[in-house]
Design a protein that fits this description.
disordered N terminus; 67% helix; 2 strands; two-stranded antiparallel sheet; single chain; 286 residues; mainly alpha; elongated
Length: 286
Amino acid sequence: MGVSGSGSQRRPLAAAMLAGIAAATAIANSSPTALPFSLIPTGWSIYLLAFSAVVAGYLLYTAQCHSKSINATLKATLKALAAVVLVLSLDIPLGRLSYNNYELAKLRDLKAKMPQIVANTLIRRHDTNNDNVLSGSELLGFEGFGDNKDGKDGATVGAEALIDFSKTERARACKRNKNGDDDDVYCTTYCDEVYSAAELRQESLHRVRRQNPIAGFYSEVFDSRRGVDQKLKLKRLFDNRTCQRILRSVDKSNAMVNMFCALWYVFAVMCLGWLLIGNKNDKKDP
């Protein structure tokens, strides 16, 4: 006599398992402005996957364990473990999906606003007259602005000119001064803001790895195989690259890793479906 229960008893469990996987996928795929799943913390996806994994393991075990024989019990246990592993492995592509669609979306918005952010920061830092423009001695270090090229009294510049300046060759050559004593106030401020954006990317990366522990573990392994130390990554980037080049890639992700995660998601779901549907054709032990 089997312990698998009738199909009507198993269907609600199968539906609950699929709903858990679907909800976890929807949460990971949500953008910062999408509703309603953007209201749910992205870290909840691992709990939904854990629930689905337990249900999948139970379904596979009860469907396979038709007798008390050692062979039947072993077969049921192995299939149940395979189902649990497949469901939990979805944390890898879902973690990547959450990083690309949620965390990097915020960085893309910040990147688009960077010229305005830099201009506003410069105005706030150097506008001693509180008139929302830079003039006279406030313009020291901003050669090329206004009517007076040397920054003496008479030259004025507003935020719009500072935004346009971000497109010049001089802006493209800016690098972060490690000693913090750069006389070029524009480059100093520009690189400080880019550094803040790069720090935000690192914080987002570590947050996703904490919320998706399985994905985080394999990401650490992947980093170690490539010789990448996330703690030293920012220092090396700003030592060797211009700030504008770093800003261009602040919202980018590894295309090969994205492709692998997409293929793994399809593979894992197909294998899980094969395990579950294949039980219908299994013969019960007497």
